[in-house]
């Protein structure tokens, strides 16, 4: 798989802020799947670019960021049609992971994670359907946020699987992640002036997924985290196995992807890189009526997560199973890791809940991430808790 | 409230079919909220029309219908921004209910129901978020279908509350309702060659809602319906009360409506008729974080309905509480009926399930409806069962 030394899709797209605000002086980059007036988002695929026209106006989140003083500096490479969490792009090259060269950056918001990790932009906008912000943020050693489904405006975004699609963001520090959240989150999602969470939940089955080294590194933080919450609970999330949760996620995602893009794929017969072509081919075979169990499972997952978290608990989970895989791994090995990773990242996806990933140094000095999942609409409270409390404590521990 | 003797928004929009097919020779009308190339959908409000431009292409369902041989003959009046089930429009007038003159037609797909009921079109397309196809179909004495959420393409439709929005359709006979379903439903939603349903479920709490006359008329069909299914069960759907289900529906709908259209309302300060203005004002006050319980309740309703219906049961419910209210009723009285009706219609809405309403003659010779709700993706099976079995038996009973 070829590498790209430039993580930008187009670094010449520069837009000055519309007015000054809380993000004045900050630069940001945007995944190449959002509308920018006068440009055509390419979605990481040359045939997409060729068969679509320029956007009439900016996506809603870009308007908000420009209106808050941030300067747009470029669009970034994405996995093709966002349908991967690996960060490999056969057409434009795989962006180089600045914190783990020789390893994949994670995707699909690969370029967004890379330009932030490399210090080329203060923050970046991506999309997270099944982990596409959280996974590259973890592999590239930065902070990443997937919000509650529905609270950040997706207008002007190429859809992937709308019932899971969210606009997420990444930054090199927790304060910037919070500052961007204050701009992007629906102004009605307030934190209600409550601080922290009173219950910390440890999901045993999720902690069986990371490799030994990653688990040991991440578990060092546990006594400190427990001291921040009054109550500490251990649970098994999926008595039926997390593989079943992931399968429900993949099936619903596949059905929605084919509904959104099957017509285009069938009509244009686009050229896809390895993995992507197979994934679309698989999605095309899914029949809604044969997959009712996936929807029923998602509903049960949502009820279970609501009962577990309510408005006052946070679930602590690893973001990825291990450091980023090597670039020269075979397609089969990368696919195996993708499935392991989806077993972790599908939880917030299925439940529609907010998740923040915080960078941690793992094996060989390469990044991994520690994640926090909170209840519905607890987005700002979660970002504030991470920025004001958790981040400092984790840094004190080194 | 003024009446309109013309249920069309624009009867001069006529589009010939693109090719012949299963709907050749049939005419249809379209609610004025769908894209038709070169025209601007008005959504029942002059300020909407003034502040929006013409559509570049047809909505997906219109393309499908034209491609199957049907002829488009006009767009139809809708309640303003689809945010009502009454069928009253202060700007364009309330379309006359052909089967119950002097009474409201129901809405928001009011014009679509009226032109079909009056014999001006063979079928019509509407939208159903909280009852906007089912309710006017029942009040106007025709057949109506709300499909499983997500199985009929909503591209080119002005959204109301996307997690509930569906494209529905209406016809004067069950066979046409089925024929249109075969065209509009995702080709992958097959009926698997299964016929009928093995369990018939009677929800006691839903049957406490209609008035005495309507209940007696509808319950006459019960012994016949029981004879069609092997098993007959009685349940209470909502131990917490259907009012709580309806409140969850209204809150989530309100949050989504304000997310979709709050910006436009705030910016343009559109002129709204009675009821609509108050509803938007209420929606503007809703805060996501204060309404997490509504989302949790919806998830629990979905799990409950899936457990109840699975793939092999059908729930028999009244479509509306009584015959259509008189036009001269006060706003408060119409609002009271709207709430009663939503308690019935919110069930399929919350659960995302398909519902067919069959016309029945009620008090004073005015129409009411008997409805059937099936499990996820059982749409074609439900339409076939109604067209091939239920409808004949009901007609035999007169």
TrEMBL record, chains A, B:
Domain (Amidase): residue spans on this chain: 19-186
Pfam families found in the cross-reference section: Amidase
Cross-referenced Gene3D superfamilies: Amidase signature (AS) domain
Annotated protein name in UniProt: Amidase
Organism: Paenibacillus prosopidis
